[in-house]
Design goal:
Helix 7 crosses helix 8 and helix 8 crosses helix 9. The protein is 40% helix and 17% strand. It contains nine helices and eight strands. It has 248 residues and is of the alpha/beta class. The protein binds zinc ion. Zinc ion binds next to loops.
Length: 248
């Protein structure tokens, strides 16, 4: 299995411990996501020494109004690393507005340009900004991964545009039936699963610190919603992650 989105540098326990526990649970591949320059360096350092761990590097939208947003040249340099396989997470967040919409959009566009220039996939953070996100992505013809997908009303456009749609622990919540219905409509070759560790623990572990091994709970909930066997969805999401991020 693959955990398509974790923040191993933000977890309390050492990455090696989490990677080992994930492997024991059958999760042999993890995408660890940098959220700023130092976090991206940390993500790369973790990917360097752990087999099966790859990094996505970005400056998250919460920092769009800070000096961090001016460091995209450093980001470009870090993205030359062989274990850097994607740009992001990047995008728009209207819930936690630490930066103005204009600042967020400017930083998002800088990531879009980097992904275009380097031919890398983009990992997108979208919190209640469906229309603006769709508009910003419209001219981009590379690979798009919608991380922590949470907008059932956005799924039709995502499917139409052939985006990869990644579901996290919030898709397991009892209140998330509409999200699971949306997940059931994502084509088998475009669905991904993730933990967003250390955040967003799935049922039945809500409220605890999340880790990549827990992706099995999200897989189980989605397999049930899609009416397929766990192993079938596990294999599909694992293969899709390889295709999305260009991994062997
Ligand atoms: Zn994240």
């Amino acid at each position: 299995m693959t955990d398509s989105h974790a923040h191993l540098d933000a977890c309390e326990e050492p990455a090696a411990t989490l990677v080992e526990r994930a492997r024991a649970a059958g999760v042999t591949r993890i995408l660890t996501i940098g959220t700023g320059i130092e976090s991206s360096r940390a993500a790369l350092a973790i990917a360097e020494v752990n087999d099966g761990v790859f990094a996505a590097l970005g400056i998250d939208p919460h920092q769009a109004g800070t000096a961090e947003a001016e460091r995209t040249d450093e980001l470009r340099a870090l993205l030359a690393h062989p274990k850097a396989v994607a740009v992001g997470e990047t995008g728009l967040d209207t819930v936690r507005q630490f930066a103005t919409p204009a600042e967020q959009r400017r930083l998002f566009d800088a990531h879009l340009a980097l992904a275009d220039e380097l031919g890398l996939p983009l990992v997108i953070h979208n919190r209640e900004a469906d229309e603006e996100t769709a508009a910003a992505l419209e001219p981009f013809d590379g690979t798009v991964v919608l991380h922590c997908f949470s907008s059932p009303e956005f799924v039709a456009l995502a499917v139409e545009r052939r985006y990869y749609v990644s579901f996290a622990g919030n898709a397991t919540y009892p209140s998330a039936a509409a999200l699971r219905d949306a997940a059931a409509g994502v084509p088998k070759d475009r669905i991904l699963v993730e933990t967003d560790s250390p955040y967003l623990s799935p049922q039945p572990l809500r409220g605890t610190r999340n880790e990549p091994a827990n992706v099995v709970h999200t897989l189980r909930a989605l397999a049930e919603a899609r009416g397929v066997a766990f192993d079938e969805l596990a294999a599909a999401t694992h293969a899709n992650a390889a295709a999305a991020f260009g991994l062997a």
